[in-house]
């Protein structure tokens, strides 16, 4: 009985001892990793910080404008080019087609909307409208 | 058991007993001791076991899912970032390395200096040698090296040279916001602009400082103002954009500007903020305030007529009109033709006291309130005579900052409520103080629109955005005397006039006329077109839709009655 208790005690002692050592070693390892990760996070935060500054620098309107002039064939939006969804015509009758001289169906230019200022509207109308015969004469010619 | 016997028992010694008994007793005592010790150990182990089970089994559910370390560090820069209203970074601290020497360790100062000069050629050789042979433990050699330079210096392997990690203030947008942001010195202390005003807050570093400025709007304003300044060879210029309902400054520029990274290299004139520190006589722009006071106090109505047939003589001065109509003018006509005589007569009707009271309420007589250290107080006449009342009615004799004018115009058009100007992002409109009634404000909107459609501000017209404004040209005061041909040309406008959202101001300092302006350098020719261009560019950015000029509700809102019963539309 005594011997059994002694052996069990001994085994328990060894087990607990080893266990405790193992756990403490693990904790130490984890703590080291934790510290490493912490410093990694700090380094990453610092890089993010620098990149944010660079992002802001790259977003400088002057640079964007320069790049847009260089690579895009876009100009500043004219007042005439802006419209809201309410300005669109509601009836589908406006989407008529005519037949061009090759017998293809071509959409009519949409009816221009009312625009800011008569003058601007007239100017735009001059540049936008393409000289084309009316539907009647066009279809008549095709026949 | 007496005390003596207990102590014997403890010692396992009973002298009165015989050897046999003593031996038995001693064994018994030993067994007792082992038992007690064992029991204690068992209690101890039970305790530990309980603790173990408690910690590993019973309490498991209550463990937090994520461990919270006490030593979690977060990147904290020396100074907080400054961002614009859209979160765009305007100023930040970036880590750099600075080179210093421990002169006690430096072996050969001359050789070391020559070696170092191969990498950093802009250092001064003599002072470098002096520093290196000074035997001091710490001498700065060069602050804020680039990573490349640091690498080069490091690879020289000169003993005694070390690097100190530092932080340096960086402004990614450079000159664009130089006057608003200000700058810091080499030790990162804010010494101008917002950097100085919010120095403490930025040091405490509780997240970024949010300004009300919009980088995109700022760029559009700065570019157009700069173009105007170059076209008309002006010596300086200022531009402002303000939200009329919140008092937020959306853009603020002053030209010439400077590079905030090298403020020391800029001349003092470039560091001077003309928008908030410069005080100028604003000229005819003040006629708007004058008209508003007259309409508010009831001394004038839209149908009042004033005699502008000939110059007004008072106390040795003669008040003349620049564009002389030489006839009787109605109140709207006074604004359209920018009549000094009419304005002076209007001001005399309500008197100097009323004028002072309203100008005080508009903030024209006190230092403007804004979160910048560079703020100039107005030059107010003292005593305030009748002649002052008359000249101030058309903007002479009272010098204010452009910021005050923009604030005042915001008050005029936003329904008559004055709110403090601010460069900090606001959450909704702050509490304000009523200066003018809603009705006066509405009339002024129509009158301002009239100036652009029919008056001196025609060149500012932008289809669809319904600008309304007023030109103001004044001769510059130099040493107390007016200088001919040295003008301040100001145009201030609000848009869209049927529901004003923003006020834009452009001031040019000493513009010169060009062939395109037929030699004129007055505000209507030089500043008004710039304002028009600014509005075309910033309106889409600020989310203002162009409206159809023929819309009946806008016609209604901007219609104005002119004299002779003739109905006149302010729009088109």
UniProtKB/TrEMBL annotation, chain B:
Transmembrane stretches, start-end: 34-53
SUPFAM superfamilies xref list: beta-lactamase/transpeptidase-like, Penicillin binding protein dimerisation domain
InterPro entries (alphabetical): Beta-lactam/transpept, Beta-lactam/transpept-like, PBP_dimer, PBP_dimer_sf, PCN-bd_Tpept
GO molecular function list: carboxypeptidase activity; penicillin binding
Cell compartment(s), UniProt: Membrane
GO cellular component: plasma membrane
Start and end residues of each Penicillin-binding protein dimerisation domain: 77-185
Keyword ATP-binding among record annotations: no
Recorded superkingdom: Bacteria
Protein name: Penicillin-binding protein
